[in-house]
Design brief:
Layout: E1 2-6, E2 9-13, H1 18-38, H2 44-63, H3 65-72, H4 78-111
Antiparallel strand pairs: 1-2
Helix pairs in contact: 1-2, 2-3, 2-4
């Protein structure tokens, strides 16, 4: 399990499991598609609801319902959902890649002697 921070909340997920990584990648694409589709809605409230729900579903799929509730609280708005989506996009660069790089280098240092 890897710990990450979204909206100031510490969350854990198995972000190096290939199935979870696939859900992360596919979920991001699906969320962006929902944002694009939301722009076609006649009513602004419908578009906002669609976009927020896409982000909520994305976070829930990766971290589970309880941890997602920690991030979103009782209610949310579009700007907050956009901030969370941006944080989700940056998770690997910020948390996972440095951890993997450090661990890989430690293994190289240990076993290449």
């Amino acid at each position: 399990m890897i710990e990450v921070v979204l909206q100031g909340q510490t969350l854990k997920a198995n972000l190096l499991n290939p199935e979870v990584v696939k859900r992360y990648e596919d979920g991001f694409d699906k969320t962006i598609k929902a944002f694009d589709e939301a722009a076609k809605r006649e009513r602004g409230s419908d578009g906002i609801r669609m976009q927020c729900q896409a982000v909520i579903d994305y976070v829930t799929d990766i971290f589970g319902e309880e941890q997602a509730k920690k991030v979103f609280g009782e209610s949310t708005d579009l700007l907050e959902c956009m901030d969370i989506l941006e944080e989700m996009y940056d998770l690997y660069d910020k948390y996972i890649t440095p951890k993997v790089t450090e661990r890989k280098q430690a293994l190289i240092d240990r076993f290449s002697k």
